[in-house]
Amino acid sequence: MAFLCENTHARLSVTFSWEPGNRTDVVLSDEMDFPSGSATYFPFNQMNLFVIPTDKLSFLSDADTYLEVLILHEYTHILHLDKAEGKTAFLRNIFGRHFLLFPNNFQPTWFIEGLATYIETDHEKGIGRGENSWFQMRMRMEVAKGSMPVREINIAPLSPPYLYGEHFYEFIAETYGPEKISTMIETYSNNLIPYCINSNAKGVFGKNITELWNEFQIYLKNRYQPQLDRIRGQKIVKGIRIADAGGKYVSIKGYFDGAVQAMEDGSLYYVKNFDQQHQTLMLIKPDGTSEEIAELRSNARIDVHPEAGILIAQPEVCREYRIYFDLYKIVPGKKKLRRLTSCSRYRWAAWNPYGNQIAAVKTNLAKSELHLLDAEGEFLEKLWEGRAGETVAHVDWSPDGSRIVAACSFNGTGWNLWEFHIKEKRWHAITRDRDIEVYPRYAPDGNSLLFCSDHSGVYNLRKRNLATGDTVTLTNVEGGAFQPTQGKTNGDIYYLGYGTEGFNIYQLPAPQKDLPMPEEKPLKKEGQALMPADSDTAYDIHSYYPWPGILPQSWSPYAEFTEDARSAGIFIHGNDALDIYRYGLTLAYDIDNNDLVGAFSAGYRRLNLYTSRYNKVYRYSTGDHHIRQKKLYQATVYIPWTSIDSAWKIHFGLSAEIETDHEIRADQAQWADARDNLYGTALTFDNSKYYLYSVSLNEGRKIRLIAESSDFWDSDFSGEIYTIDWREYLPLYGKHVLAIRIVQGWGTEEPKPFELGGEGGTDFASAMFYYMDDPLFHHREYPLRGYPEGMAGLRGRRMQLGSLEWRFPLVEIRK
Length: 815
Known about the structure:
Blueprint: H1 2-16, E1 25-29, E2 37-40, E3 46-50, H2 66-82, H3 86-95, H4 109-120, H5 133-145, H6 150-153, H7 159-176, H8 179-188, H9 197-205, H10 209-233, E4 240-241, E5 251-253, E6 260-262, E7 268-272, E8 279-284, E9 290-296, E10 301-305, E11 309-318, E12 322-330, E13 338-339, E14 346-351, E15 357-364, E16 367-374, E17 379-385, E18 391-397, E19 403-409, E20 415-421, E21 426-429, E22 437-442, E23 448-453, E24 460-465, E25 471-473, E26 480-486, E27 493-499, E28 502-508, E29 556-561, E30 566-575, E31 581-590, E32 595-604, E33 607-619, E34 625-642, E35 647-661, E36 674-686, E37 700-709, E38 720-731, E39 737-747, E40 754-756, E41 781-782, E42 795-796, E43 798-807
Parallel strand pairs: 1-3, 40-41
Antiparallel strand pairs: 2-3, 4-28, 5-28, 6-7, 7-8, 8-9, 10-11, 11-12, 12-13, 14-15, 15-16, 16-17, 18-19, 19-20, 20-21, 22-23, 23-24, 24-25, 26-27, 27-28, 29-30, 30-31, 31-32, 32-33, 33-34, 34-35, 35-36, 36-37, 37-38, 38-39, 39-43, 40-42
Helix pairs in contact: 1-2, 2-4, 4-7, 5-10, 7-10, 8-9
């Protein structure tokens, strides 16, 4: 990895004419079962790379060069976003790595992600998403329905910024020359005003973005219309779009997380993806009626046996912060998931024909293994163990129980179909070419194999006779056809199809017409990987230490102006590469009260320390006021119980607050100093959800149960304080949400009182981003809209607070 990173740096630093001032931290992680990566310039340059091999179709063509492509993509972000020229470079010398002084970050997402996807693409090697049949399918369908206007792509989530962005850079390179891309980056790197993409385009091309976008749409049509014409000229062959008994079409939306399986009785299981709800396992019965079976996690994979039940592989939190796939089961006639394994990392699984054993693919440290489990997920035998980089996915068990078929990427030869013969414990190749063959499933008689492949650049369904090796094509679609499954009774084939409306389920009636197979792409060379060979370069190896990365990289001006105080100062923060250590400091001058105020927060793993000092205004009914200085010291530790859907935490803390008069007038009565030392315990729960197109948290709740005692050690207050803070989010219709909050606090004896009013207090939490949380203990001040803080009538030993909010979008630019 070090060799790959250094070579990538040597190549891309020339491309961007830029070298960062400091090294880039690269964190390799095997703590998530999703191939992914991220890059950040703030507070320092860092890439996080998940080394799990890819098994997701949108990336499959790069399976043998996944890490190379990942590093190219993420390091493009580093160099692009880090680059600063002229005024921004000068100001960075003063303020450090302030987030406002990274001009390339203040562009639409499609500019940023599109560039990285363009750079990762190598047309000569045939790698990167720009060379990907899946990627081209998405754009082909965009052209078929009419590509997005620029105002929509500016705010589009998920794949459109990558898709349109990469094609836009290809358009610039082919139309105006690749040197214009470098000029765009160079010019924008000296820009202090965010999102000035039109003025930058004017300076480079003499045209604004709208004019360029109009040319770009013509470019897309000229590029993809011939593909559509060729497909249509060969006559479209596709299935019938399925509708339930109510006439409603089955739609999977635009995300490739669905799964389809036909059963002997004519019923059909599939995974439905909503943009405002969880994924859901659905059943279409033989009479056409639909039924929800259970909510599933993102990327869930299913395999159904009529007697054994529904086998599900889906992700879950493992040991607090890892996210690994585990196996679950739903027994016939039930709807409740029962967990079979824990932290197992089984990403794919299939029943044997008798329903008493499971074949499961385990992936750990970039190595795949094929395991045999019993019906309850207990380990029986390791059938096969691969070498690093060998990946197995999409498994299915033959009807006679002797073989297992899978899509495999072995020795840099791309994705092909292989059969594992259980008695021999050996893989046998079914296909051997550079086309992508995936989602194999045995026909009910076991003599032939259904699968999909991108021969000729379009994903279509194929059928292979296992005895003769003859392969035919079953569909000829404009978009793509995936995940074939055949009903035993009627011989109809069901599949997941992608078209201008996204993903839907289609039914291809029997008998299917055999179409000729397109020409195969020959292997480049048996066993030859595209990644460079290992280097003999010696690297200094030592244990992890956080210094000097934890030192502050920038400072920010800080200002706060309320009816009670005006203050100005600075904010600094820092954290190490693994976010084990973190801190934030706000230091300000209270102009009205001639005092130094601020807050400091530090964290180490589950331990958090917090201290603050500010001035509080108490108001008399006469209109006069009294100013008190407050100092808070708090130490907390928590124990978590987390899952993907929810998080429980129990917190323990010690807290001390000292309150004294601050420069009172001679005619004012002096208040006694007050010290409140307490011990606290809290239980928090959070299962709130935010979906892709939500306007706020969309459903679920956040609950805080807090118990504090001022009798723990010497304190000027006495008794206990109990607080419950409940926030509920109720989805109404569409994207409308009802947000309800109820807070109830009560104290015994003479505790420090609750206070309502104001705009949120001066606890500096808003200035510290994620480096600190709102203090959990000693929380006595709660905002109340329309009332100033410090009013005597809004102070007391007991408190109730409620709010009701109706949240909805004012306008939806993208439907």
